[in-house]
Amino acid sequence: MHGLVNRAIECFLRDTYSPALWAEVARDARLGFGSFEPMLIYDIAQTEAVISAAARRLARPREALLEDVGTYLVSHRATEPLRRLLRFGGVTFTDFLHSLDDLPDRARLAVPELELPCLRLIGLGPHRFRLFCASPIAGMGHVVVGLLRAMADDYGVLVLLEHRGQTAQGEVVSIALLDAAFAAGRPFDLAERLT
């Protein structure tokens, strides 16, 4: 597993809870080091061990923890560059959804070794979609749910998201766009303003 994925989980635990909690999780997972290097490749067993240890330490279901990781990836101030990258997917939330199929390939342009979950969106009618998420890490569909929930807030839309379980094609997330103008979205400019 690419170090960027592991580092994202580490930063989520550090920023949301504390560096002390991260140290306990790293010890429980028997990593043998204190921090993931973003550009190294790690055994997927280490990623699984970190997720399991964090869920135990926090007494939270794995699914809820992974959904929180997805929300963190878009909403925390430390992850603003990722939010900006995702917003380039489209002017509207529906445009953004349609850009998800290409997200893993776009990410590999920047980091060739990065293997993001394979995402495939299927339209089911006006404002209804099904998203398939295939990943070697069980539960990545929950990360996607958290990410989509945060992006919906970012665009100011009201959506109903539901993780529908696992199929042969991957984890399934159902998406229903209820109100495209529910609230004012967060400001976004193509050109980042320097302050």
Q: Can you give a write-up of this model?
A:
There is one protein chain. The protein contains 8 helices and 4 strands; from the N terminus they run αααααααββαββ. By secondary structure, the protein is of the alpha+beta class. Helix content is 47%, strand content 18%. The relative contact order is 0.13. The longest helix has 16 residues, at 140-155. The mean pLDDT is 88. It has a 4-stranded antiparallel beta sheet, covered by helices on one side. Helix 1 crosses helix 2 (19-28). A hairpin with a 2-residue loop joins strand 1 (118-125) and strand 2. The protein has 2 domains: 3-60; 90-179, H-NOX domain (Alpha-Beta Complex). The chain has helices at residues 3-16, 19-28, 44-58, 62-75, 80-87, 93-99, 103-110, 140-155; strands at residues 118-125, 128-134, 158-167, 170-179. It is globular, with a radius of gyration of 17 Å.
